[in-house]
Amino acid sequence: MPELSQLVSKEVEAALHPERLYVFYRGEKRDLQLGYSSGGQSHNLRITEESELLRLMERERSAQDFPLPPESSLSEDESAWLTGLGINLIVPMSGTDGRLAGLLLLGEKKSEEPYTQNDRKLLEAITAQMAVVYENVWLKEQAAKEQKIKHEVLARFEEQQINLVKECPACGACYDSASEVCAKDQRELTLSLPVERTIDQKYRLEQMIGKGGMGAVYEATDLRLTRQVALKIMLGNMVLTLPVLPCRILSLRVCQLMSCFFSAAISPVRNPVRNINRAIFPTL
Ligand SMILES: [Zn+2]
Question: pLDDT tens across 248-259, in order?
Answer without folding.
Answer: 444 444 444 444
